[in-house]
Every structure is written in structure tokens, then in C-alpha cells.
Please model this.
Amino acid sequence: MSNEIYEMRKAIAEIGSVMYERYLTDAAGGNVSVRMGDVILMTPRYAGSKFHWDMKPENILVLDLAANKLEGDGEVSREVRVHKDLLNRFYPDGTAVVHGHARNSLVFCSVEKPIPSMLYSTDKFGKEIGYVPDAPAHTQDLANYVCGFMEGQIERVKKQAAVVLAPRHGVFVFAKDLESGYDALDRVENSAYCALMSKLI
Model:
């Protein structure tokens, strides 16, 4: 594998670690992926529960575009359908998928309520972060719903990212690149926190 791919695998591992430290995801799951040409780089199954989001570049899987593992230590995540479908359908407008179980955002996911944009920093994603229809995790239905939502958000993806909630599951970010995806998840989580805490004022 090229040095460019190695460096991206390293960056994905680092982003995953920061996400876990900042409660942007948890031990139950979350995933990060990036498409580079004809391969997809993606965090493995059990990134949280077994790796504790403390991974090395070789733990980040190298997949072909059909999500078959070419290289890497670990199993392919069951959530790969969403990542594969987004990165095949909308590449190169979007090259990264960041899926997190962010603590405050999960409150909205659990009750199927949109997250209002409380800050200027989240206005770029819309007046609120909506949600797709309920579908069990890891299913093709979920992948179809997320892809269907993102189809109408490609202009946002080109600029930075588009964000959607999955009921009782988590946050899906589709972004122009890895850094933009992480940034969008962090911003939306801050807006969720402000929306919740503002009820105390």
C-alpha cells in the first residue's frame, strides 16, 4: 500500500481516538471511513468494545468498493452498507463518512426529535438536523434511508458536510473529507448540548 494510504489509515485511527475521548462516539459502535480512489479505508468491527478506539494504522481496514477486505487487522463492520453505498454513489463529491454515537445527540435520536441549530456554527447544516425513518442498525434499509437523505444534500457535502440522525442509533455525517466530517459531528453535538441545557435557563 502507498504511503498516502498509510497516512490516511493513521489519520482515521487518530480521529477515532479523539471522537471517543470527546464522547462523540462510544464503546457500542460508530465508524469512520474514507474513499481513496478504488479503495475504502474503514475502522473495523468492535472498534469501541474491543479496541477501545485505540487503534494503529494496520487496524484500519482496506476494502475494495464492494466492501471486501483487502488488508487490515480486524473484521469488516456490520455498518459497512451505509459507508459503501454513500462512497460509491456520491464520490468524489463526498469522500468521508463519520458515524458517531455522540452523547447529547443520542438524546434526540432516542426520541426521534430533530436537533435545532443553536449556533451560527451549525447553521450551514440547516435550521435543524433531521432524521431518517427508523430502521434497525446494520440493515440495507438504513443504508437506503441515509443515502436517500444525502441525495438532496450534495451541495452541503461539497462545501463541508451533511448530517442526519438515525432513530435510536446515532449521527451520520457525509463529508467532502475526513477533517470536515469530524468537524461537522463536533459542531452538531455542541448544538445538541446547547439545546438540552437551554431548557434549564
